[in-house]
Amino acid sequence: MGMSLIVKKITQLVIGLIFLFGINIILFGHLSVGGGFAGGVILTCGFILIMLAFGKDKAFSKMKIRVSHFLSCGGAITFLTIALLGYIGGAFFLNFPDHGKAFHLHSAGFIPYADIAISILIVSSIFIIFVVLVLWGGLTKNSGKDADDEEYIHNL
Amino acid sequence: MLTFYLLLGIMILGSIVAIETRNLLSSVISVGIVGFTLSILFLMLGAPDLAITQVVVEILVLVILIRATISVDNTDIEATRDNFAVVSSLIFLGLFLVFASFAFLEMHPFGKSLMRTSQHYLDNGLAETGASNIVTATVPMIHWVKQQCFSYPC
User: Fold this and answer.
1) What are the residue ranges spanned by the domains of chain B?
2) Where are the alpha helices (DSSP H) in B45-133?
3) Which of A110, B68, B100, B132 is packed most tightly, with the most Cβ within 10 A?
4) A41 with B57: Cβ contact below 8 A
5) Tens digit of pLDDT for each residue in B93-130?
6) Judged by CB atoms within 8 Å, which residues 38-67 of A form the interface with B?
7) Which residues of A touch B147 (CB under 8 A)?
């Protein structure tokens, strides 16, 4: 299932460039436009493109639901750890590492690492939000109560 | 300035089409047109960060909304009119317009704003954090701002 052959072929050709563009916007977030949030949403749109073109089985084989659970909690805990490490410098959320030279890639303290943590959190969270809203019909009282739905969720 | 008002007119037209059309899919696409025109306006006003984020989040919201509308059987909007709600909302909108016009007459002209607090961020952002993207560097600068505000009348 999924879409026609033309859409599948074009997706195969273009998906690597989409992921590379998203990683570029995340890593250069403290120098040029973007940052963690915009780059993370771009990567999520890449995963959603895989789900729309190839069907949900292929998308779940690339990013499983269990892995998304761990990554979303892990990204948030990493961001909190970076903020708590500011106590080395003396205060909460202090920019304690070396500031480096301006306009270089390795500069601006902990901001690149915070960007990476935020982007991992955003990718897993928005992917799960999309799956719940589109595939499982929202989180109402009656959704997910059918027998094959619950089995499918447990086997992911 | 002319293209600015032209794009604003396109946004107003798109919003009116989104409300008044009968087909549900057409109104979702009109909401998408309003969002994309807003991102072009952000570029013209000099905010590339906001333009990139607006485009990507708009695409995400459009995919979810279109998936939600094409799985519904009935794509026609049936109109029922609630008279009391329409009349009361018109009265409150009129009052809001009257008081907002008093506030608008006292604002600074467009393009020359009064940036007293944010001027501190712009002047010292690069020296304080080492990052050239002030949008990303605003949160780690919070300690510096606390120090300054205790010693300088902000």
Assistant:
1) 2-75, 117-151
2) 48-70, 83-104, 117-129
3) A110
4) yes
5) 999 999 999 988 887 777 666 677 777 777 777 777 77
6) 38, 41-42, 44-45, 48, 52
7) none
For a pLDDT cut of 90, what percent of chain B falls above it? 43
Q: Is the pLDDT of residue B16 over 60?
A: yes
Of the candidates B88, B60, B139, B8, which has an alpha carbon nearest to the alpha carbon of residue A130? B60
Q: What global pTM score does this model have?
A: 0.79
ipTM score of the complex?
A: 0.81
Cβ pair A100:B137 closer than 8 A: no
Query: B105-125 burial string, b = 16+ CB within 10 Å, else e?
Result: eeeeeeeeeeeeeeebbeeeb
CA–CA distance, A94 with A34 (Å, rounded to integer) = 22
Q: Which residues contact B29 (CB under 8 A, 6 or more apart)?
A: none
**In this structure, are residues A36 and A82 in contact, taking their beta carbons and an 8 Å threshold?**
no
DSSP B122-146: HHHHHHHHS-S-HHHHTGGGHHHHH
Work out the average pLDDT over A71-89: 87
A25-58 per-position pLDDT tens digit: 999 988 888 888 999 999 999 999 999 999 888 9
- Residues 6+ positions from A127 with CB-CB distance below 8 Å: A44, A47, A48, A63, A68
> How many A-B residue pairs are in contact by the CB < 8 A criterion?
87
Nearest alpha carbon to residue A99 among B96, B130, B147: B130
Is residue B64 a contact partner of residue B45, using CB atoms and an 8 Å limit?
A: no
- For residue B73, the distance in angstroms to the closest alpha carbon of chain A comes to 15
